Amino acid sequence: MGSPVDPDDFITALILTLLSAPWVLYFFSELIKQLEHSRINLEDAVSQLERLRKHDVILNRELQNNIRQLNYEIEQRRNAQLERESVFEELEREIKEKSEQEIQARRLSTLTRSIIDASPDLIYYRNEEGRFAGCNRVAEEVTGKTEAELLGLTPHQVYDEHLARQVAASDHEVLETNASLTEELWLQFADGRRRYFEMRKVPFFDQDGHRLGLLAFGRDMTERKQAESAIAQASKDKTKFVATISHELRTPLNGIVGLSRMLRDTKLSKEQFDWVSTIYASAITLGNIFNDIVDLDKLDRDKIEIDLKTVNLRDFTNEISSIVSLLAQDKSLKFHSEIIEPIPVAIEADGTRLRQVLWNILFNAIKFTQKGEVKLSIEASDEGAGNAKVTFRITDSGIGIPQDDLDKIFAMYYQVDHPDHKSATGTGIGLAICKQMVDKMGGEIHVHSVIGQGTCFEIVLPVAISQHQARMAELEVSNLNILLVEDIELNVLVAKALLEKLGQRVEVAMTGTAAIEMARKTEYDLILLDIQLPDMSGFDVAKVLHEEELVLQTPIVALTANVIKKREEYLQNGMDDIIAKPIKKSRVIEVFNELFGEEQKHEERRPTSELVSIPKVDKILDVDMLQMLVDTIGEDMVRASLGIFKEKIPEYMELLTVSLAANEKAEVCSQAHKIKGAAGSVGLMRVQQTANKIQEGDHPAWWENVHEWVEELAMAIDKDVEHLMEWVNANKIDD
């Protein structure tokens, strides 16, 4: 480049240029073509790229949208995952809690089942079809089947037919009414024991209110039932005791009243007359106090009855006044009675009850009056249609009754608490009995009192005016041939003297056998028959007399100190009437006039009821049989037999007493038959004979006597087994 320029250089360059120029032009033209083509391609490519760019923009937007959607979904899934985790955690907690609850429920179920099984009560439940769906152990013991065996069974497949019908009927009632029900029934255990259950049945439902069946709960009330039977028997024993005391006390009381009454009719000095009158009044007082005790027993048993008879008001008033005046004289009190005319001559009333009411109030009036007077007044008002209202008014000048106590004096055992009353004590039952008797007679009793001035009692009775007035005045018959059957000398003396004084002829029999023999030989106009005789009862005597037709025209009147029995009971046992002891002249006249007066009774004589005496057992052991057993099987076998008897007899006795409490006569007889056989096999004669009485269920007085026989049987077993052991020990024989 820095050397000098040579023309050759130009020529060379020119030639080279001319030579290379076409190629260069061609090259450049081709290059230009290529470039143009490249440009065109490039433009196409740019266009394509632009399209791709636009498409990419669109895709990018879609991608962004997708990314945003994906992010949203991811977030949602993350939230859902968190929720699932939370749900899983909650579910785990619930599962854990439910597991714990199930465990607790199983524990409670086990505990509940244990409690149900441990319960002494009978529990079972049945479904809608009446089939067993579950029970406790007591129910298993009763039925003799396990719970699994009971499932699906009906009562008819478990119990005897009678009990099944009863159970099914009560079940049906519970399901029909959808209400609970309580019933009491005897159930027999599979081992033969009988127990008395109080059953409570209720429908039960699920949580949606759909009924599933019924539940039954049974409580063993056997001891209560036996206690009730014992109480009932105790009431009978109390009644028997009162009847016995009645007879025992009235026997000497009869003599005191009768002899003192007859002694007053003899010639006595004034002092002697006062003494005898005091004895007479005291005996009457004692008799009335005893009447209160007897009536208290009757009120307890609701056995008070009103027996309407014709009562002559004047005679009735005079009779009471004569006795009360004697008591008043002892306290230096004035007593007077007043009849305010007009009054009926006679009324229809229960003279015995009315007399007792008035006597109680009059006796109290004298008892609580220290000085002054006691007054009895009677007045009547005609109510029309043959009826009247009679008012008995008793006033005294005694210490009076406080106003606060007036409403209480008719309460049982109530006594006024007053300083001035301390010297006058009593039972507290008299006024209470008076109130109840007046109520039963349809009347009213009122009391008015002022402290320090006295008291007034008013008894108002509605009565019928009697048309049989003349018959009450005096005895209408005489010279009757009377057979007096009485075993106590004192009673014979009093009754015979009274009857002969009334103009009658009297023969005496001291026993029932003697009375029957005398009735066979002689036809009497009247038989006065004591009920308690040494060899047989008066009812037995009456039965024989009727059966042998010895009294077709002869009335029989019972003489009795037993005021417990109703008059109806005597009439049903062959009596025509009764006279209570101590014998009163007025009552004798009343009965004699009714039986032998002009107007005869229209009532037919009622047949006597059968009474079977209970034979006494004298021997305890069957010695001959025992001796034979010892000789035959030896002493050891006898002792072994006795051991078996002692082992089994408590079970037999328990079944017997429970069956008796259930009034299951057939079962009682069955158990008695077992005891009889067992006793006979070991020579216990008294036990055997007593059990034999119990097993004879066709006895006409079986229910009346069975409780007493069972007591005899228990006593005989307790004592006679010891006697048997003593006999065996005392009669050892070498085999």
UniProtKB/TrEMBL annotation:
Does the keyword Zinc feature in the UniProt annotation?
Answer: no
Q: How the protein sits in the membrane? A: Multi-pass membrane protein
This protein's UniProt keywords: ATP-binding, Cell inner membrane, Cell membrane, Coiled coil, Kinase, Membrane, Nucleotide-binding, Phosphoprotein, Transcription, Transcription regulation, Transferase, Transmembrane, Transmembrane helix, Two-component regulatory system
Q: How is it modified after translation?
A: Activation requires a sequential transfer of a phosphate group from a His in the primary transmitter domain, to an Asp in the receiver domain and to a His in the secondary transmitter domain.
The domain of life for this entry's organism is Bacteria
* Entry-linked Pfam families: HATPase_c (PF02518), HisKA (PF00512), HKR_ArcB_TM (PF18415), Hpt (PF01627), PAS_4 (PF08448), Response_reg (PF00072)
Residue intervals of the HPt domain: 634-727
Gene Ontology CC terms = plasma membrane
Domain (Histidine kinase) ranges:
244-465
Q: Which GO terms describe its molecular function?
A: ATP binding; phosphorelay sensor kinase activity
- Mainly resides where? membrane
* Record PTM 4-aspartylphosphate, positions in chain: 530
* Coiled-coil blocks: 32-108
**How is this protein named in the record?**
Aerobic respiration control sensor protein
Where, subcellularly, is it found? Cell inner membrane
Q: What is its EC number?
A: 2.7.13.3
At which residues is Phosphohistidine found? 247, 673
> For the PAC domain, which residue ranges apply?
181-233
